[in-house]
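Newbie here. three chains, one complex. Structure please?
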Amino acid sequence: MDSDTSRVSSRPSSPEVDDIFLSTLKKSVHGFSGAVSSTQSDSPSDIPGLRGLSAADEEALALRMASKKDRKLLSENELQAIRLKINSRERKRMHDLNVAMDGLREVMPYAHGPSVRKLSKIATLLLARNYILMLSNSLEEMKRLVSEIYGSSGHHGGFHPSACGTMTHAGPVPGHPGASHASHPAVHHPLLPPPPSTTSLSAPGISAVTSVRPHHGLLKAPAAGAGPLGSSFQHWGVGTGMPCPCSMCQVPPPHVSSMSSVTMPRLAGDSK
DNA sequence: TAGGCCATCTGGTCCT
DNA sequence: AGGACCAGATGGCCTA
């Protein structure tokens, strides 16, 4: 089972200090197991028991904090100040981690929005891994196709494998409007199993994708008919009669919201 | 009510 | 020595 629905809006990754204060206060009221029945603050001066400390007192405290073996000599309030400082650092560290996680979610091919439950951390990591593997594999596939099609002979005017073959414009660019979409029609969605008709996407990368995909039903069958290069091209290569494999020449991908509603019912279907 | 996910606290370890 | 990192414990919130 899952929850996160309301957490999207009601529970930010990094709660406000007041929230921390309240939650921790509740813990202390209920006899939290920690050595410190802490109230929350980023500054020892805000600790009720330490509010009376002067700057000189805090400096003296800091000096005494320098020696771990002396900590046993510290008063309860002083130990509390140390503990709160450490806790604050840990909160900040976790907050930064969550910010990074949010940044990762933003560039994942997954529907975003206030009405859509955000990916859990584990789902984000699994999706990201699959996405990277899929992109890497599709890149290799595109390179191979380009070399096969245009490698040994002249091709449509001005087309250089060194330009398109390196796929400098193939992938989603973080921050680009298309970055949050299933960005490349030539590939299936990273959470989807390989298309049945796929001939060359059976490389190790894709098999890895399928082998590591989440077990909890995040994946469903892909749209039918999408071949290794996708279902359609915008135009054909000039003079070659061959479809241009360049991703710029391909139709925009369908919006991922449809994907998410199908492949991640647990996540998108619970939106409210 | 059980289970999933999360934030926070905490103590230990590692690194600079 | 101090900070970063990690993992276990705890409790809250939410959904099925």
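Moderator note: The CA atoms of residues 150 and 161 of chain A lie 7 Å apart. Residues 1-7, 10-11, 23, 26-27, 30, 32-34, 65-68, 86, 89-90, 93, 270 of chain A lie near DNA strand C (CB under 10 Å from a C1'). Thread marked as resolved.
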